[in-house]
Write a structure and sequence with these properties.
The protein is an alpha+beta fold. It has helices at 26-39, 65-72, 75-88; strands spanning 10-19, 43-50, 55-62, 89-99.
């Protein structure tokens, strides 16, 4: 679970997807994207799960919409997005939400 350490006013990018069969280099690129995102200004954290059928959810957390836009424009990320459309996903959806409040124990 991501250690958000913020109480309010940040953003979540929710990426839901269905993987195609086989790795096709996905694992290495997924690790690289997380490494790059962690260095991106405005990045807060990430949580990700995938089940045996290939259905997955990744939620990344960002300080601002500008930080999200900058990440989307990262050249390596753009290349990975294209590979995702061409090779790794049969479908996906991206949702961007503002986190108004957070709590837990």
């Amino acid at each position: 679970m991501a250690d958000i350490n913020k109480q309010e006013g940040y953003y979540a990018v929710i990426f839901t997807s269905m993987r195609t069969d086989g790795d096709k280099g996905y694992g290495a690129i997924a690790e690289r994207m997380e490494e790059l995102a962690r260095r991106q200004p405005g990045f807060i954290g990430v949580e990700s799960v995938r089940d045996a059928s290939g259905s997955g959810i990744t939620v990344s957390y960002w300080e601002s919409l500008e930080a999200i836009r900058d990440w989307k424009r990262n050249e390596e990320h753009l290349s990975a997005q294209q590979k995702g459309r061409d090779q790794w996903y049969s479908q996906y959806r991206v949702r961007i939400c503002k986190v108004e409040r957070e709590y837990g124990f």
